[in-house]
Amino acid sequence: MKHCIIVGGVAGGATAAAQLRRINPGIRITIYEKGRDISFGNCGLPYNIGGEVSDRDKLIAATPESMAERDITVKTHHEVLRVDSGAKKVTVKDSSGDREFEDEYDYLILSPGGAPKTLPALLNVPQAFVLHNLGDLDDIKAHIDGHGVDKVVLIGAGYIGLELIENFVRRGMDVTFIHRSEEVYRPLEDDMGDFFIEEMERQGVDVRLNAEIVEVTGNAATLDNGEEIDAPLIVAGIGILPRTEFLKGSGIKLNDSGFICTGDTGRTSVDCVYALGDAIETFYQHTGGKTTVALAWGAHRMAYVIANQISGNEDVVFEGLLGTNIMRFFDYDIATLGLEQHEVLEYDHFIVDHRQRNKAGYMDSSVPIHVRIYVSKTDGKILRAAVVGTEGVDKRIDILAAHIRLGGTAADLANIEVAYSPPYSSPKSVLNMIGYKTIEKLKQFDE
Questions:
Q1: Which key words tag this protein in UniProt (predicted)?
Q2: Which of 4, 43, 261, 272 is catalytic?
Q3: pLDDT at 444
Q4: Of 136, 306, 335, 355, which is most buried by a Cβ count within 10 Å?
């Protein structure tokens, strides 16, 4: 019987195991997971803190016991230390028993994920945490409850940092936000995100920009300007690094940043070794350029591809991704897709920008929505899009993603037929208007 070893669980590894078992009932599957939990909704972690996910256990997607019912062996607290791709072996450390052993595979799926970054000043600080898994969530809540904490210092302005600001406010805590620059939420254009600071201050958040913590003594944190602030709880959300150190010497190719190089089959540079999730380098669907995207959709889709590839269906391939994403920040929704802002500069392009109401303007409930796209002068393709508003953002970004995926150009947006009724849209939606504006700009280039 063929044996497939999977390194890591959560959205990548656990989904790959489930898909592989569904397609291939005759293969033996073993998951080695470094941590305590095999599969959970990590995107929902902040919302348990804020109370929108009232039951923490609802975040658990699978357990070793539920996997065993599907004839999938799960070993938690088991860390893969080395991969010998020539001998098709992995070296595993059982942290609970403090022993090492080897295991052989016919196929290997790598889903090691990312390791959260932290600051040197926060090392060995008992009240400093990250929020990366269920264990982190449990530790943060236990610290709050055990010490009667009603104040928190948040560091970082990515997904996790901003979502935690919102949810700690909803929890009723005093929040201080510290960020080392004035640029809040880098995925979004600065001039489209000028509401972030205003909204934080409206919600009572103490905002400290161009600042960093350099020392923590007791419950006091010292900033780089010498100021001391009260910090009985500190949570850092400053990004992740790929967990791929264990692959050194394996023969598996990594890019310069340590991400595992993969192609449209999910296979790495080594036969019978596949990879997915936050630790891989993949590619954009619409340009073919390389990218790394720590989002769940790509992991779930690649899990399906890899399961089919291992099971002999080589027709199923990964067509790339757009990095379509959305987040909520209090009343605002912020969505982007496509290339990052600095990547767009590599293409000869123009920008189309439009603001209007999300529905018929005479409706009292209508609110502004702002759409910006970056268009290739070469072929009219949409390279990047950003949408901001307080209602209807998800619909617009999803339409754009589907439109691009099916080969639609920016000018083709004029032909998008929306479901119109005053409570939902305008006869000419914001995306139609983007299309018309694109057509006019193209005429200027032809002159």
A1: FAD, Flavoprotein, Oxidoreductase, Redox-active center
A2: 43
A3: 85
A4: 306
Residue 187's alpha-carbon distances to 182, 353, 365, in angstroms, are 14, 17, 29
b/e burial code for range 396-406 (CB count within 10 A of at least 16 → b): bbebbbebbee
DSSP symbols for 221-267 = EEETTS-EEE-S-EEE---EEE--GGGTTSS--B-TTSPEE--TTSB
Distance, in Å, from the CA atom of 348 to the CA atom of 376, rounded to the nearest integer, reads 6
Domain with CATH 3.50.50.60 in the chain: 3-41+60-114+242-310, 118-236
Token couple for 21:
């078992």
- pLDDT on residue 443: 87
Going through 60-98 in order, the beta strands assigned E by DSSP cover 60-62, 72-76, 78-84, 89-94
Counting residues of the chain whose pLDDT is more than 90, the rounded percentage is 97
377 neighbors 445 (Cβ within 8 angstroms): yes
- Cα(371)–Cα(394) distance, integer angstroms: 12
Summarised one tens digit per residue, pLDDT across range 320-375 is 999 999 999 999 999 999 999 999 999 999 999 999 999 999 999 999 999 999 99
Encoded tokens for 109: 């799926």
> Is 43 annotated as catalytic?
yes
pLDDT-derived band at 447 (thresholds 50, 70, 90) equals low
Measured N-to-C along each axis, helices 10-23 and 296-310 cross at an angle, to the nearest 10 degrees, of 30
Measure the CA–CA gap between 196 and 158, rounded to whole angstroms: 12
- The pTM of this model reads 0.94
| 418 contacts 440 by C-beta, under 8 angstroms | no
Catalogue the E-assigned strands of 117-212: 128-129, 151-155, 174-179, 206-209
What CATH code is assigned to 3-41+60-114+242-310? 3.50.50.60
Q: What is the pLDDT of residue 354?
A: 98
> For the chain, how many residues are written?
447
Q: Quote the CATH superfamily of domain 332-446.
A: FAD/NAD-linked reductase, C-terminal dimerisation domain (3.30.390.30)
Rg (CA), the chain: 24
In the structure encoding, which two tokens stand for residue 84, read together?
């010998």
